[in-house]
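New to this. Please check this fold:
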Amino acid sequence: YPGVFGEVENEKKAFKIAAKVIKEVYQKDESPYIVKYNKNAKAWIVTGSLPLFRLGGVASIAIDKETGEILMLIHTK
């Protein structure tokens, strides 16, 4: 994914970036999103979710905390 978003200092900013990128790439909203910080990777990991009793995959994105660079963007089935 092209573009760098600058320092991502909190989970609110990570959420906003992830929601924007996922919506742009996959044309869907997978909220509520689960936002976690991985201190080993120094990155925010944001994962979408599905409605209750619905089968399928979700998007996951890793955002570098210092630069805001998208390190990973995947969608499972």
Q: What stands out?
A: Residues 11-26 form the longest helix (16 residues). Strands lie at 34-38, 43-47, 59-64, 70-75.
